[in-house]
Please model this.
Amino acid sequence: GYGLAILGPLGVGILHEATGGWTWVLIALAAKSLLLIFCATVLARESKVEDDVRMPMPDST
Model:
């Protein structure tokens, strides 16, 4: 958890030092936000197990 959480601030710091400004950092954060919004919309779709499973038809004997 915490070991993985350090990657965000560390990545922002490295990108800021490499580019010498905040422009590319903000572009990267905006791109990440758009990706996360897309993933959240796909994962938050309303779906039910009953929609995906075929129920067996009862025997008519």
Remarks:
- Residues 2-44 form one domain.
- The helical segments are 2-5, 7-19, 23-43, 49-52.
- The first helix runs from residue 2 to 5.
